[in-house]
Amino acid sequence: IVYIGGGEPMIHPRVQELVEKLVEIPTEVVISTNGTIYKSIPNEAQIQVSVWTLNLDLYKEMLKGTENQLNNVKENIKRYISDGNSVLINMPVYEKNINEIQSVSDYADNLRVKLRINPIFPANGFSNNSDLEKKIGDSVFNLKMKGRNIIYSRNKQKVERYYQEKC
């Protein structure tokens, strides 16, 4: 598996060429992106889009993003799905966005894509405490009980390709 992450890999002018060459080998290719930039990627590659929130005010506060960028993320996820790429929504969670789990899960469920919840580990000024991890776990449990397609682990996970189920 080749994992292409960031910064933002879609900024690179030859990322499409790189992915084309890798899938010819054949190699499993996973691209982790913030979703603000769209590039047509061979559909053998999986696109993992980080979605911290769908709430515009929180998006601006947390990521210093704009309304246009958040709209691009949503549109680009749909484009990757339409292109035939396997798409996974990755949601990093900490204190500021824990209440967004439900809305991001609703969004992923509506698109019929898998959601991975990642608690933020102590780094870059973010950290989770055990109470918050319990709240995250409880939220995920409740959503799984509703039949949601969610991946969650309190431990850091290895990079894996998650296949989108075709309906």
- Provide the spatial order of strands within the biggest beta sheet: 1-2-3-4-5-6
Largest sheet composition = 6 strands, parallel
Tally of separate helices = 5
Q: Overall 3D geometry?
A: globular
Element pattern in H and E: EHEEHHEHEHE
Report the average pLDDT across residues: 88
Number of strands: 6
| Strand content bin | 15-25%
User: What percent of residues adopt helix (DSSP H or I)?
Assistant: 25-40%
Output the structural class. alpha/beta
Unreliable segments (pLDDT under 50, ≥5 consecutive)? none
Can you describe this structure?
By secondary structure, the protein is of the alpha/beta class. The chain has 5 helices and 6 strands; from the N terminus they run βαββααβαβαβ. The protein has a 6-stranded parallel sheet, covered by helices on one side.
What's the short story on this structure?
The protein is an alpha/beta fold. It is 37% helix and 18% strand.
SSE order and pairing:
Elements: E1 2-4, H1 15-24, E2 29-33, E3 46-50, H2 56-63, H3 67-83, E4 86-93, H4 101-111, E5 114-119, H5 130-145, E6 150-152
Parallel strand pairs: 1-2, 2-3, 3-4, 4-5, 5-6
